């Protein structure tokens, strides 16, 4: 595999992940399958893969140079801060000044990346800032995981990543058996660790050159099997007749993560000398997918403020625009024409996220060059 730090096809993965979330949210959860769940899980697996690989490279460099791992730990947190915090806190500041509910009321939960814990404790969502729970999960994972990779022996890292999988499934099972709210099993950081663990294992096998495990990703066979497993679990979940049950609370995230890791692993094996007309090339490396994948953090962070079906009020400019289009074009945004609403909202979101990328994110990201490993 190509071991360059930038892997073009993974921007395509970000595009598909964020697109699943946005389409699910803006369709009113009417796509027929939990697309938003899959999109978020795909992000978690990708994060596990990328962060594990970055930290393992830093660990190896520390050892080669004979320096303490504290240097790489510091660099990691500085680089993460530069990538994640500026747009997040600028967005919160704007929402606070505009008094967008519930930002002022839940401000300290938001600024400390604890929204997922708020949701689990109070068994409720948080309106227009619902989606920030997944960013909280990622930040909480970053708090402890770098210490494990940098300071544990190499073999122990693999054991920890493997342990994440039964730990997360076991915690979700415990919550299900004790009749906890499904929200808790969905949003708590420890219940997401199987996704991070599977992504991390892929990076571990790649960095240690484990050809036996990597061979699983060389063909489409295991990717197809993992997709069938995911579809089977979704069908079981949907056929229970209840909104939330054993299959979506306990099993679904693992099935999503399994499919996600085989998808990412398969993309890593693309023959980069092959024709650009191949399916996987087009799927993951077309210019649109790569660009939107590059700005996907802004797209995800901002999309719920561009429009939220349940929390954008009557005076929200996007709702007014949709109502106007509905008056001019009866049926716009509903039924079979819901795809038109999704496309329009996506275009608006991409425009705003592009502004944030060029005005805020890209200039700040360039500062990361001063804090290399």
Features:
373 residues, mainly alpha, 0% strand, globular
Describe the structure.
This protein is mainly alpha-helical and 373 residues long. The protein has helices spanning 8-26, 35-65, 70-97, 107-111, 115-122, 133-151, 154-177, 182-187, 193-208, 211-214, 221-238, 246-268, 279-285, 287-294, 296-306, 317-328, 338-365. The model has no long low-confidence stretch (mean pLDDT 92).
Strand tally is: 0
Classify the beta-strand content into a percent band: under 5%
Give the mean pLDDT. Answer: 92
Radius of gyration: 21 Å
Q: What structural category arises from helix and sheet content? A: mainly alpha
The low-pLDDT segments are none
DSSP helix fraction: over 70%
How is this fold's topology laid out?
Elements: H1 8-26, H2 35-65, H3 70-97, H4 107-111, H5 115-122, H6 133-151, H7 154-177, H8 182-187, H9 193-208, H10 211-214, H11 221-238, H12 246-268, H13 279-285, H14 287-294, H15 296-306, H16 317-328, H17 338-365
Quick recap of the structure?
This protein is mainly alpha-helical and about 375 residues long. It has helices at about 10-25, 35-65, 70-95, 105-110, 115-120, 135-150, 155-175, 180-185, 195-210, 210-215, 220-240, 245-270, 280-285, 285-295, 295-305, 315-330, 340-365.
């Amino acid at each position: 595999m190509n071991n360059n730090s930038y892997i073009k096809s993974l921007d395509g993965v970000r595009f598909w992940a964020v697109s699943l979330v946005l389409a699910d949210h803006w369709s009113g959860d009417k796509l027929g399958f939990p697309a938003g769940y899959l999109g978020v899980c795909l992000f978690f697996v990708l994060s596990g893969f990328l962060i594990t690989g970055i930290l393992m490279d830093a660990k190896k460099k520390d050892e080669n140079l004979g320096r303490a791992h504290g240097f790489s730990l510091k660099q990691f947190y500085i680089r993460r801060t530069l990538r994640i915090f500026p747009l997040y806190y600028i967005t919160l500041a704007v929402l606070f000044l505009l008094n967008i509910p519930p930002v002022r009321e839940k401000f300290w939960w938001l600024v400390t990346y604890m929204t997922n814990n708020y949701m689990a404790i109070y068994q409720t969502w948080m309106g227009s800032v619902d989606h920030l729970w997944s960013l909280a999960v990622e930040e909480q994972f970053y708090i402890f995981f770098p210490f494990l990779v940098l300071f544990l022996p190499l073999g122990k890292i693999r054991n920890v990543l493997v342990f994440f999988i039964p730990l997360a499934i076991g915690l979700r099972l415990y919550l299900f058996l004790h009749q906890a709210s499904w929200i808790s099993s969905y949003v708590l950081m420890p219940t997401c660790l199987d996704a991070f663990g599977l992504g991390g294992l892929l990076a571990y096998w790649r960095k240690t050159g484990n050809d036996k495990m990597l061979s699983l990703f060389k063909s489409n066979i295991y990717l197809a099997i993992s997709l069938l497993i995911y579809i089977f679990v979704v069908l079981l979940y949907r056929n229970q007749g209840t909104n939330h049950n054993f299959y979506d609370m306990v099993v679904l995230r693992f099935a999503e993560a399994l499919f996600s890791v085989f998808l990412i692993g398969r993309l890593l094996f693309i023959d980069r000398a092959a024709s650009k007309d191949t399916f996987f090339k087009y799927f993951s490396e077309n210019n649109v997918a790569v660009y939107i994948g590059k700005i996907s953090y802004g797209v995800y962070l901002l999309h719920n403020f561009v429009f939220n079906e349940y929390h954008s009020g009557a005076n929200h400019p996007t709702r007014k625009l949709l109502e106007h289009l509905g008056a001019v074009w009866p049926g716009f945004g509903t039924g079979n024409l819901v795809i038109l609403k999704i496309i329009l909202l996506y275009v608006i979101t991409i425009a705003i996220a592009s502004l944030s990328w060029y005005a805020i994110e890209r200039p700040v990201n360039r500062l990361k060059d001063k804090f290399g490993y």
